[in-house]
Amino acid sequence: MIGVALGACAGVALDALFGEPKRWHPLVGFGRLADAIETRLNRVNGGARLNGVLGWCLAVLPLTLLAWALGRLPYLGWLVEALLLYLAIGLRSLDEHAQPVADALERGDLDEARRRVGYIVSREPSALDENGVALAATESVLENGSDAVFAALFWFAVAGAPGVVLYRLSNTLDAMWGYRNARFERFGWAAARLDDVLNYLPARLVALTYALLGETRRALRCWRLQGPQWSSPNAGPVMAAGAGALGVVLGGPSIYHGEMRYRPPLGEGAVARGEDIRRAMRLVRRGVAAWLLLLVIGSLLNA
Question: Which sign, positive or negative, has the C-alpha torsion 266, 268, 270, 275?
């Protein structure tokens, strides 16, 4: 337990010091591997679910076993685990993408804010006004804080290096294959469902974390009433609780790939502004600090 706590603190510290590797990131190589597997297996009419399961296993399980073996190396295993967690989380990267959006909004540079928010959301940025940009960035911080930071910490705490590698690779495959279109509807089914399963518990712990660190009663109420209305079973609780904790209203209509989508409202209070992007980042950072503190305390109590 002490090793897990120290590894988690070390991984987060490395991320804070160095951020995401600019070159030779292992996930880039994994993306090429996943593309090669998908090209080989997803050939006829969008592939089949069984092929998707096989593709997921070929992409994820050997590297997870390799992480398990490296984590058991004498004297170096703890360092390998910390490095793998560092490569799996994206707290500093999230901050580096979100803060320029807030900066541009504060300067009144809407065009730059739209350009910057386009890096982190899939909706059409040119259609967004100032509040729309702030809303999109705030949603992205809350949701990606769960996916890219907290869930990686959760699976590291549960299963060490193999846990965090299994989660990060599965989450990456969901981003690559988990689309509901002709190409991926069947082949990507396993990647999407497994990512939902792996995120189920972390997402609800994140929602609880947001609630406890913000306006707790409002956050819990929004989570209970609004979270189930969202299309994603994991993003709904996270963003509803986060919006309630911050006292802002998120969701609503937005344009994705030229198509208007009407999404349920999340949260209560005022419309999102540029400062709410920073408040969302502070909420995520405080949540990470709370999780690390709990890991350290738990390790000391079990020592």
Answer: negative
pTM value is: 0.94
Distance of CA 177 to the CA centre of its chain: 16
Q: What's the pLDDT tens digit per position in 98-110?
A: 999 999 999 999 9
Question: Among candidates 221, 209, 216, 223, which has minimal Cα distance to 294?
Answer: 209
Q: Are the C-beta atoms of residues 213 and 242 closer than 8 Å to each other?
A: no
Residue 286 class from Cβ within 10 Å (0-12 exposed, 13-18 middle, 19+ buried)?
middle
What are the b/e assignments for 153-188, b being 16+ CB within 10 Å?
Answer: bbbbbebbbbbbbbbbbbbbbbebbbeeeeebbbbb
- Cα separation, 235 vs 229, in Å, equals 11
Whose tokens are 């994140």? That residue is 206
Of 255, 90, 280, 261, the C-alpha closest to 172 is 90
Q: pLDDT tens digits for 176-199?
A: 998 888 888 899 999 999 999 999
Beta bridge partners of 106: none
Number of other residues whose CB lies within 10 A of the CB of residue 292: 18
What DSSP string runs through 24-46?
S-HHHHHHHHHHHHHHHH--STT
